[in-house]
Fold this sequence. Notes:
Blueprint lengths: L1 H12 L2 H17 L3 H22 L6 H17 L6 H21 L7 H23 L7 H21 L3
Helix pairs in contact: 1-6, 2-3, 2-4, 2-6, 2-7, 3-5, 3-6, 4-5, 4-7
Amino acid sequence: MTGGFLSGLLHPIFGWDHVVAMVAVGLWGAVLGSPAIWILPITFPLVMAFGAALGIAGIPVPFIEAGIALSGIVLGLLVLFLVRAPVVVAGVLVAFFAVFHGYAHGTELPTAANPFAYAIGFVIASGLLHGVGIGLGALNGLAWGKMAIRAGGAIIALVGTAFLTGIA
């Protein structure tokens, strides 16, 4: 049980492609404000768990790595340009990318690990990373905060681009 939980907890934290996307979800939610600040970080892990179930079941989903990389690029650009999408559009976009991240977690599940414990671990880690993004979004109230948030979006998009092009 512990091995599955720890594997699930550590997987998103040590995969920079996952880190940037999950931080971006919280950060974009903070940029959008209420209710997106809560809806996006709740939507992502819920749909990610669905994607993991697809991966565990062996149901093929194409373009997983490209989808993960694109999540960093797209979400990073949305933060960089402070895009104010309607909550429904933001939620659908975040859910779309969550399927790819969840699928990757599901297919990378260690064979000896408990899938349920692993899922709990990666959902908790994802929530923590979303919290980091929300925390960074709190900079918005400072004079230099918007610039810092936009710089964070640019870095996220660049990391996503590095993964998409095979540099990282």
